[in-house]
Amino acid sequence: MTTALWYALVGVILLAIGFASLILTPGLLRKIIALNIMSSGTFLILVSLARRSPDPVTQAPDPVPQAMVLTGIVVSVSATAMGLAFLLRYYEATGRLALPEDDLPAAPAPRHEEGPSA
Amino acid sequence: MNHAPVLVVLVPLLAALASLLLPPRLSPWLFGGGLAGVGSLLIPLYQRLLAAGPFRYRIGGWGWPLGIDFYIDGTGFLMLAMTWALLAGIGWYSLAYFRGRPAGAHFWPLLLLVWAALDNLFVTADVFNMYVTLELLGLLSVALIALAGTPEAYAAALRYLLAALGGSMCYLLGVAMIYSVSGTLDWVFLRTVLTEGPGAVMALALVTAGLMLKSAIFPLHFWLPRAHANAPAPVSALLSSLMVKASFYISLRMWLWIFPGVLQVHVAGPLLGLLGAGAILYGSLMALQQTRLKLLIAYSTVAQLGYLFVFFALSMHPEDVTPALQAVVFFALSHAFAKAALFMGAGVVQRTLGHDALDRLAGSAQRLPQTVFAFGVAGVSLIGLPPSGGFVGKYLLIDVAIRERQWFWAVVLAVGGLLAGAYVFKILARAMTEPPAASPAPSLGPSLAASAASSALTGEGAPPPAPAVVASSSLVVEAAASPLGHADSAPPERGLVWSTWTLAMTAFLLGLLALHPLQVIAIGAPGAGPRLPGAEAAQ
Questions:
Q1: What's chain B's Rg over C-alpha atoms?
Q2: E-assigned strands of B310-427?
Q3: pLDDT for residue B85 is more than 70
Q4: Taking 80 as the threshold, does the pLDDT of residue B76 lie above it?
Q5: Mean pLDDT in residue range B324-328
Q6: Residue B138 · residue B164 · CB < 8 Å
Q7: Given pLDDT bands bounded at 50, 70 and 90, which one contains residue B407?
Q8: What was the ipTM of the complex prediction?
Q9: By the 8 A CB rule, do B89 and B499 touch?
Q10: Sorting pLDDT into bands at 50, 70 and 90, what band is A115?
Q11: Average pLDDT, stretch B34-51?
Q12: Are A90 and B139 an interchain contact pair (Cβ–Cβ within 8 Å)?
């Protein structure tokens, strides 16, 4: 197994974990983190693609996918910041940490769940 | 004007940066300057396109394969022109809509950035550059939706952010696959260097899945109605008319320009068509069930996007795809104008009546005659009645279906028109109903006294004043609850009404002026004559 293939496999696994979490967990914070894990997986796959087509003379990895990864990281960081900012606004306005259709109880509520009467 | 292709991106971008630095009251002026600047750049581009056909522009003189090139053909130019015209209309409307409101300070820079990103998307020849513009448009849309400032708008913005990021990540993976099997990212050359195989199949599947999520095609439409219905009216118009076309434009490039050279794409075409047919039926039926005007219009967008994907079922068989391409681009063009007009009209209704509940629209035809007229005219284009732009687009699509003997798609397209008729008439029937004399809902201020007097004159018992006062005060409370829904008893500002009216009339009259845009679309169409390489330098 080559290093490139190993990277690609790990990338696919991260992508799958992130995607499952994005779909299955209701909490918005978890969804944002899941998207970050997905983008890490995507970037690993891109890096492994760069290794797959090296420069014929120097054997250096192809720079174009690496440039794509750099751009992708910039996008991912700014999107995460934006998502977190909106999550904060949403929480301040509604007291909720999930979208209405995901039906997570409002944030202060879970304290009662530990008691037997709740 | 040799540098026009790059200037159509730079002018709005610089205006956006300037609008962030200068006081907010100057932003509309910057936008107006951008309109004048880009408008004067589109003319030489157009003349060059007519004279010499599609052409390539090398940014900084680098050129393919080292640099990122711009490539202008008929479809791309028409999208540029559509963006310019729609933004002119939406900007005119926003001038009145955001006057004296703090959200306006954030709106103008975002609008200018959207413009720069759209122009960049429509001129770029690089599929990774398309990814960057897609991400820009996604993030800008999220910010624009949240301008409404309501909890629903924040929820819609977050939902859209998650969907958009997932979709563009899928697209990025597809682009990486394209690069790894071909070694280039330039869509004009990809057709010749892409190699057949599982890599190409997977690239197309990933790219298409990501773009379908971003253009909200039927099973992946969940984010669209609430995002478009909860945004401020000019933003709804922008999202529903231009933003959804951006990802469709990339799908077009993928399915018509890039992949037909290497893959048997016609095998997958009917599958996309079936999704489109599902979108037409589902979106129309959902639109019929809505009780809020803006949600109805948003579901109509879901339905109309279905037509754009039915196109993929029609375009795959013939050797010459030009007629189908002309039909679908023209359809997208007229839908953009009609849908922008509908959302802007809904904004006028919301501003004037304080709500957009369909059941309480009675009497709005008397209070807002031009707006309801605009609803009717834009609706004619959505249904596809002659001589509107929607008619020409739909007629050409059905014509292709019949000439290919694909009767099923012709039936789907016709049924979609009937359903569109049903939901457009649902709006118009509500709006044109006489307000019942006992119900004071739409009449506030002086018109209340007038209606009371008129009902007294006709011999009916005048409504007792007490319930009327109660009802109108409850209206005021409701209006105060939603920051964008102020129930002004004054007539709406003329800018709001006339910009809506102008866009609706444009959608209507496009049908009469269809011949020339159709010729422009054919320039550089994949089935039309020598197409590769259009690599003459443009320095």
A1: 24
A2: none
A3: yes
A4: yes
A5: 90
A6: yes
A7: confident
A8: 0.86
A9: yes
A10: very low
A11: 93
A12: no
Of A53, A72, A87, the CB nearest to B158: A87
Do the Cβ atoms of B151 and A94 come within 8 Å? yes
Mean pLDDT of B303-319: 83
Query: Are A86 and B158 an interchain contact pair (Cβ–Cβ within 8 Å)?
Result: yes
Between chains, do A35 and B151 touch, taking CB under 8 Å as contact?
no
Shortest CA gap B154–chain A (Å): 6
Own/partner pairs, B321-325, CB within 8 angstroms, 24+ separation: B321/B256, B321/B525, B321/B526, B321/B527, B322/B521, B322/B522, B322/B525, B322/B527, B322/B528, B323/B396, B323/B399, B323/B400, B324/B397, B324/B400, B325/B75, B325/B252, B325/B256, B325/B521, B325/B522, B325/B525, B325/B526, B325/B527
Q: Is B467 a residue whose pLDDT tops 50?
A: no
A111: closest CA of chain B, how far (Å): 24
CB atoms within 10 A of CB B339: 29
Q: Residue type for B454, please?
A: S
Percent of chain B with pLDDT over 70: 85
Which residue of chain B is at minimal alpha-carbon distance from A26?
Answer: B159
B443-460 pLDDT, tens per residue?
444 444 444 444 444 444
CB contacts, 8 Å: B139 with chain A: 78-79, 82
Query: What residues in B contact A90, CB-CB < 8 Å?
Result: 151, 154-155, 158
Judged by CB atoms closer than 8 Å, whether chains meet at B176 and A52 is answered as: no
pLDDT value, residue B265 = 67
**Domains identified in chain A and CATH numbers:** 3-114 (1.10.287.3510)
Interface test with A, best of B144, B162, B206 (most A CBs within 10 A): B162
Question: Quick check: A79 and B161 CB within 8 A?
Answer: yes
